[in-house]
Amino acid sequence: MTIDRMTRESLRQVLGPVDEPGPLRPAVEEEVACDGYVRRLVSYDVPAGRASAFVCVPDALTGTAPLVFCHHQHAGQFDLGKSEVCGLRGDPDQAYAAELAQRGFVTIAPDAIGFEDRNWTDGQNVTWFELSNRIVVGRTLLATCLQEISLALDYATTLPEADPDRIGFIGHSYGGRAALWAPAWDQRIRAAVSNCGCVPYRESFARDVGFQAEFVVPDFASENDLEDVIALAHQCQYLILATDDDRWSRGAASIRDRLDQRGTRHARVEIRAGGHDFPRTARSAAYEFLDETFQAAGPNRG
C-alpha cells in the first residue's frame, strides 16, 4: 500500500492492525528510594504479553510533573532495556530516565519487545521472529511497539504525580527512531527528543546501515519517508539531535532541508561533531528543550 497523502488513518492502515487491548491490570512489583526520586518496578498487561517497566517519581512534588517516556537503545544487547536508561546497568550516558527524574520529571521506561524482561531466550535476537510472525498475516512489529508505547502512557497517566497534558518522549538510537514515530501514533505526546536515530529510509538501503526489524513496513518507503511522519505529528515539538560521524544519523541534513521546504516548523534538527553517542552536553540540551517546552505549556497543577 502506498500512502499518497499521509493522514493518521492512512498511517495506521499501512502499519497494519493491532490486537484490541484488555484491562491493564497493573501491579507495583518493587519500590526503591533513589537519589532524589523513587523507582518503581511495575508490570501491566499488553496484547503481546505482560509489560515490564520502571517508573521514576521525583521526591517532594508539590503538584503534578511532566511525564516523559524514556525509550532504551538497541546496541544488539537484548539483555538490556529499562535497566540501562535507569542507570542500573550498561552505559551511564544512557541513564536519561534517572537523570530526568532528578530534574523533576516523572519518567516511564518499559522494555521493548525482545529486550530484557521481554526477551524469551538467553539474550538472542528475537525481533526478526517477532516481525515475521506479523508480516505474514498483514501486520507489522512497529504497530505493536507503538501500541505498547501508548499503553505505557495509559498506565503512567493514571499516576497522581503525572500531568497528562504534558507528555514527552526521549530516546537514543532505537529510542531515537521511536521518538520520531510515537507522536504520529499518539497525539498526547507534545515534545520528543530523538538522538542518533534519524536515518531516513532512503539512506537505509546502504549495507552499512540496513533496516531494523521494528521499522520494516511493507511499501512505506516507495512514496514516503520520515519527514512525512514528523510532519504528521504537528501537535509535537521535535528536537532531532544527530552527529556528523554516525551512520544512524546519516541524512539528518536532508531531513532538515525537506522539513524546511515543506514549511514544517515544529521540528528542529541539530547536527554536532561526534559519533553514535549521547554525551552529557547533548543530554543537557535535550533536558533544557523539555524544560522549555513544558514550562511554556503551563506550570504544575497542584
From TrEMBL:
InterPro entries: AB_hydrolase_fold, FrsA_esterase, Peptidase_S9_cat. It comes from the Bacteria. Belongs to the AB hydrolase superfamily. GO terms for biological process: proteolysis. Transmembrane segments: none annotated. GO terms for molecular function: serine-type peptidase activity. Residues 144-276 form the Peptidase S9 prolyl oligopeptidase catalytic domain. This is Peptidase S9 prolyl oligopeptidase catalytic domain-containing protein.
